[in-house]
Amino acid sequence: MTIATYHPEYSEHIDFWQRSDDVVNNRVHAKKQTYLPIIGLIPNGSGDDSTSNLNVFLTEKYNKQIWPMSVFFNFVNPTIEVTSGAIMRKPPTYKFAKDNANSVLDYLTDNSDGRGNGLTQLARKMCSALAQKGRCGLLVDVPVMANAGVVITGEVVPRLAFYEANQIIDWEVDYRNGVEVLTFLSL
Predict the structure, then answer these.
(1) Residue 162: partners with Cβ closer than 8 Å, 6 or more residues away
(2) CA nearest 24: which of 71, 88, 87, 72?
(3) Whether residue 46 has pLDDT greater than 80
């Protein structure tokens, strides 16, 4: 049985990342009382019937009058889209081999993650994630290969795996020869 551990930085930022997801993905109205709580309710611990009646009245007023009139304009998502669009305005060019020769890495332009997303789409996704949460992860999944022939034919190729900030829960780094090296990762 494994017990999930959380990096202190993850624990510090997860609430912000979840709020950010709600705002960008337009889920603010779906989570009513999280973002526009019922203010002024009397705690229901007194046992007084008038208190519970007042709470029922205020809750009904909230659901029928206050919440329907609330407005949330999602300016964050268009801003992130415009920002990542400005960064990726000029299509990138990839050169994996000299003199226009074919390269074993050419598949990355059209299908870098195994789902049909090329490097350009993956870069756009990373730009959006960085603008939204300030971090993301990109791992290279290198399969065990029997020989170089399966790579050249494209049967077995390394894939890039993109992870949102909230999917990377714990990690450790070490310094080797002055370079920071990831030594542990939990997703």
Answers:
(1) 113, 122, 125, 126, 129, 136, 137, 138
(2) 72
(3) no
Confidence of residue 102 (pLDDT cuts 50, 70, 90): confident
Give ∠ CA 60-64-70 in degrees, rounded to 5: 120
DSSP string across 104-156? TTTTHHHHSSSSS--HHHHHHHHHHHHHHHS-EEEEEE----S-HHHHHHTSS
- Average model confidence (pLDDT) for the chain? 83
**Is pTM, for the whole model, over 0.90?**
no
- Neighbouring CB atoms inside 10 A of 153's CB total 10
Residue 170 near residue 5 (C-beta atoms within 8 A): yes
Length of the chain: 187
- Using CA atoms, how far apart are residues 133 and 155, in angstroms rounded to an integer? 35
What pLDDT score does 136 carry? 93
